[in-house]
Hints:
Layout: E1 4-9, H1 16-21, E2 24-27, E3 29-33, E4 36-40, H2 49-57, E5 63-65, H3 69-80, E6 85-90, H4 98-112, E7 118-122, H5 127-143, H6 147-157, E8 161-166, H7 170-175, H8 181-189, E9 192-198, E10 204-211, H9 213-227, E11 235-240, H10 244-256, E12 262-267, H11 270-276, E13 281-286
Parallel strand pairs: 1-2, 1-6, 6-7, 11-12
Antiparallel strand pairs: 3-4, 3-5, 8-9, 8-13, 9-10, 11-13
Helix pairs in contact: 3-4, 5-6, 9-10
Amino acid sequence: xxxxxxxxxxxxxxxxxxxxxxxxxxxxxxxxxxxxxxxxxxxxxxxxxxxxxxxxxxxxxxxxxxxxxxxxxxxxxxxxxxxxxxxxxxxxxxxxxxxxxxxxxxxxxxxxxxxxxxxxxxxxxxxxxxxxxxxxxxxxxxxxxxxxxxxxxxxxxxxxxxxxxxxxxxxxxxxxxxxxxxxxxxxxxxxxxxxxxxxxxxxxxxxxxxxxxxxxxxxxxxxxxxxxxxxxxxxxxxxxxxxxxxxxxxxxxxxxxxxxxxxxxxxxxxxxxxxxxxxxxxxxxxxxxx
Length: 290
């Protein structure tokens, strides 16, 4: 069986240690603050997540931009030059047009490397939701799945990657058009915490609202219990936007309910952080929609 490289992008928000352990290649995405543009890598080499959220708290208004076909071509070609095939699991088309850029790059490179395979898959997932899909795909690769087999597994399971998260401040969602100005003002006054997920098209949707952070975290852990499948053998990923205390609380609540075998706590990086702001917390796992 020909060897292949598993690739994703930095929106997956997997910790650098996990990426290295599982031999996952990462294509960095870009964000800008003022006139400065940065690539986000798992090792946070250009800006740490803590510094990023501190800048937002101090009034910065970051923006993100898609990876263009030229950058994708450079990244893919470097991998194809190793002689291996390439399987790329991409950030959802529901929130970005980067997937289209990747397809353009891949089509050109297939002509240049006719003896190799380059597959680009739309994850329909975002942030650590994409991360949990890629994490489990990497485990399947370790088990010996061929590239074709893994590609089928990803497409069969991408909607089983369950995303649940809460945000602390509705104004970041308002800026992105996810809630109205009136909802943002009223929600902040009432300490309403929106609960969000990703639908089957990979688009961000508000699923519920909780009064206060504690109720929101209870809702998230309740969804793990409700939708999780085979949790006794699963590694659950918990993410936070410079709010480690929320992540630890989620972990403790899951442990108390005996939900999950292992846990990974990770930072929500600047690409998603631009749209949700500091204080966001998330839990992702493999399961089925309720």
